[in-house]
Design brief:
Strand content: under 5%
Shape: elongated
Number of domains: 1
Helix content: over 70%
Order of helices and strands: HHHHHH
Structural class: mainly alpha
Distance between the termini: 35 Å
Number of helices: 6
Largest sheet: none
């Protein structure tokens, strides 16, 4: 399976991962805005307009103009780009370094690398819906669009993280077993 990271020289992959990780952490820090009782993911997953109104009204209790939520949304645009590319490269590196070309693991890793960008696109659609709600349109379809996109995004990211962690653990166990 072809992937754009095929053009990234192997010697640049780990430094690129480190840089992307640092950028992801820096962007994540900027999204740490005080929103009151409910974190942003509560609104992301709000199942209906009533739940979304409760969350937004709670935020308005301490921030009537929702400036913190809007600032979080601004920085989240950069965070999405960073985390999705970091996880995509992570899946790609694991696939290429831990699996031979004949295995399903390599294909799965490259597929998950593509899917990390799909998760990013879902996150941008989710943010669009959230911005509509922050702008006062706390009505259907925006809570449902946000909730569905967020759920799919979290599932894809979770699958990618499981792939990365299990591949690393399996690789380490094999090294230990071979050393014996």
């Amino acid at each position: 399976m072809w992937h754009p990271f095929d053009y990234l020289p192997r010697s640049w992959q780990i430094p690129a991962l480190v840089i992307l990780f640092a950028l992801t952490v820096l962007a994540a820090i900027q999204t740490n805005q005080p929103l009151n009782t409910f974190p942003m993911n509560a609104l992301e997953l709000a199942p209906n307009p009533d739940a979304a109104k409760i969350i937004i009204n709670c935020w308005k209790g301490v921030d009537p103009k929702l400036e913190a939520a809007r600032l979080l949304q601004y920085w989240d645009s950069y965070f999405i780009l960073c985390y999705s590319t970091f996880l995509a490269l992570g899946c790609y590196v694991i696939a290429n370094r831990f699996y031979s070309s004949e295995t399903n693991g390599k294909t799965l890793g490259k597929l998950l690398a593509w899917l990390m960008w799909v998760a990013g696109i879902l996150d941008y659609v989710e943010n669009y819906a959230i911005n509509k709600m922050l702008g006062g349109r706390i009505e259907n379809p925006w809570p449902k669009v946000s909730s569905v996109c967020a759920s799919l995004k979290f599932a894809i990211i979770g699958a990618g993280l499981v792939f990365i962690v299990t591949a690393i653990v399996a690789h380490m166990l094999l090294r230990v077993l071979r050393a014996r």
